[in-house]
Amino acid sequence: MDGASQSFEVARERAEFLRGELERHNRLYYVEASPEISDREFDGLLRELQDLEAAHPELVRPDSPTQRVGGEPLPGFASLRHAVPMMSLDNTYSLGEVREFDARVCKALGVELVDYVVEPKVDGVSISLRYEGGLLRVAATRGDGRTGDDITANARTIRAIPLRIASDAAVLEVRGEVYLGHAAFARLNQEREKNGEPLFANPRNATAGSLKQLDPKVVAARPLSVVLYATGELEGAGWDTHAELLEALKGLGFPVARPWWLCRGIEEVIERVEELQGREGELDFAIDGAVVKVNEYRYWRQLGATAKAPRFAMAYKYSSEQAETRLRAITLQVGRTGVLTPVAELEPVPLAGSTIARATLHNEDEIKRKDIRIGDAVLIKKAGEVIPAVESVVLAKRPAGAEPFDLFAHAGGKCPECGEAIARDPEAAAWRCTNEECPAQVRGRIAHFVSRRAMNIDGLGEAMIASLTTKTMVQETVDDGLFGATATEVELPPIVRDVADLYALKPKDIELRRPNRAADAQQTEMKLASKLCRAIAASKNNELWRLIHGLGIPNVGEGLARKLAQEFSSLDALMGAEAEALATVRDVGAIVAASVTDYFARAGNRDVIEKLRRAGVRFDRVEKVAGGGNPDGYFFGKRVVVTGTLEAFTREEAHEALRQRGATVMGTVGKTTQVLIAGASAGSKYAAAQKLGIPILDEAAFIRHLE
Predict the structure, then answer these.
(1) What is the mean pLDDT of the chain?
(2) What is the span of the domain harbouring residue 701?
């Protein structure tokens, strides 16, 4: 073999390796949600493959990750006829009708109980992907259900869609939804605003508009993703149940919407659709309900379909209950980061079983978009939120003279809490108080610091924090020896100005300021105050991740705090890290890295940290997880799910104990689950583990293995 041939062979082998690595990392990111490398490292591998293919064009393959960047603009979309129609689902807003659906299914099948699968109803744009011999050949929209548009060139640019799968099936057509995640949608609209382009109304419209772009390069620049949950035409592939299909799709490298549940009977279905509605805020994609499907495919064939919809599935849509009322006023709340949030003060109105007098208005931009004015008749909705939202204005009832809302003018250019100046933050589409010592910000920072998922200091509620951080008038009993005991008012100055001041508190400081304390309360006992001081002192030995999270660094939540603690092992190392080093940490990236370095660069923040150091707060207590656990321990390296109610642990405590022993805590049971811990009232996860043959531990066995 001559030199040129050897050079080409080396390039071919390297290109093959890079393609495999890029496909593996795409899978880890989009399917397993456990990336191993940073975006920068991924881009470096991609650039190397692009350079190799540029030097050796004969190495270019249609399934290469380099082909995701998009080719030349398309002249138009060709029409494609679906081999198997893409049908819509019957839907309902009534749980009673879901039970009626079950009754029809059971009657038609002649059985008393049916297994169902419950999945999120993703509010995206339907897509069908056709693979032949493992290669993506065609992608199409739903269209009218029988004929759709050929959007193959655009689909190839979506990184979550595998270009090649490990399947030799002659035809494997998978179907699902393309969507824009909440964070991706916000970033896209921010970019459009900077460029002077009109904003998208919602993620679904943005997704639909993206897929219908004739220039694939435009689609490639938009962070679309996908979840798959069904099949169309199959040749050389097949499954017996829908649960098996979902596991198989994940195994082939397709993202599958989580959470989903295998349910035994309709009552468990009802439980899960209600649970899913409560967990809507945890999901990155928008949902508008739950889909209920009969699990066994042999029953699908028996039940068949109407002209429009299958009889084996139904969509339960979450209703957004609405009521009309009058907007009396708009007040401004100041959060721990100084953001001013407008709140609607309403004429009280009954809604969803409670009387509503306040509703969120989100921010000034949202008020302007909906043209909400004080005095307007408004529709408010409640769809699982703690505080309802103002949905729209009843323009026909707008009073004469109602003025457009201007937050700066409404606030008089000043913070309603401290009177200092406010300024517009273009990155957050919000107005902020510029005074970091603003009492509202101080209260917010302390409330976050002591919260359960941060330093976990029990006993410091809103009223107690307010009495410690502001001037407080208290009743004191004074006996001057002449006229006997008399009650008098005493003004106490604020004693806590930052989170570090908590560690200097004495029981007497707390007792004097305790809300609702009687003037003749016995200070000698001070049980509550002493208990709180002990809780504060105990928090000095918390794990490092709790401290990092508690500091309230912008863009650093609990998950990232854990990663940063594991990566840097001490707060001092984290403070000294440069942005480039931070950006290489998994899930961090340039934006979070800048937030961290900016936070520690501020003198005020460093002063507080030094006060925490002097108070004795540990900066280096890293929890034992993954590599830090005992490799010989039962749970080390295993994927574990906890379900049911445990007597000796809260769910969070059980998760912590597992992480400290090197386990990976999962939320759902699947084929990769290695252990299920089942407490009282374990439900579908228990049944799924039994079916999959996964080891199940009761609480007593769990405790033995922990020890």
Answers:
(1) 84
(2) 626-706
